[in-house]
Amino acid sequence: MECNNCWKEIERKPIVEEVYDTPGDNAPEEKYFCSEECKEEYLFGGDFAYFDCIGCKRRICEQNPAQGYFIQYRQAEDGYQICLRCYEEDILKNGCNKQKFIDGVVPGMFFSYGNPELSAAGYSEVPGFDCYFVNGKESRQKLCQTAIDLIESGYKVIVAYENLSTMGDEGYVTLYKKGDGDGKHSEAGD
Fold first, then answer.
1. Phi, psi (rounded to 5 degrees) for 132
2. Residue 109: domain span
3. Of 46, 65, 94, at which residue does a domain stop?
4. Are residues 90 and 126 in the same domain?
5. How far apart (Å, rounded) are the C-alpha atoms in residues 36 and 43?
6. CA atoms of 110 and 114, how far apart (whole Å)
7. Which pLDDT tens digit goes with each residue over 12-21?
């Protein structure tokens, strides 16, 4: 058996670490190491470092070639990382965070083509914001203010990224809402 880091033959009992290559993996993969140093270097020092998801408590690769090298987490509160699967589950349940919109950030994520996850969770497109082009301060403010208004009217909102630049500062998004808009302030969106 070889060490996953230095590729040397492991002469004694290996150090075994269970990891996930992608957030969508249901079964872990075992990685073998000859020493704690090799384990630490492999898991936390390389191009494909791992992180511990605060949601599902799994150790997941930050960027995996099988996923097109996309970052497989979002920053959560206090600098912790949450995997994309847990993040998706959270925003489908609670909607996007109102404070992000107040701060001028367009929170959301890429879903499957056509955004079937949103439809299945009871969300519908906001008129005028289907494949909405965000290309500067004015268009971003319009989207964010619309989302804030919907949240304050009792809706949950999600932004589905359709096509964004690599910097995330320009591209197409679709705004979705869920709820009855009863005018009651939604605490989940805070």
1. -75, 130
2. 95-189
3. 94
4. no
5. 10
6. 10
7. 999 999 999 9
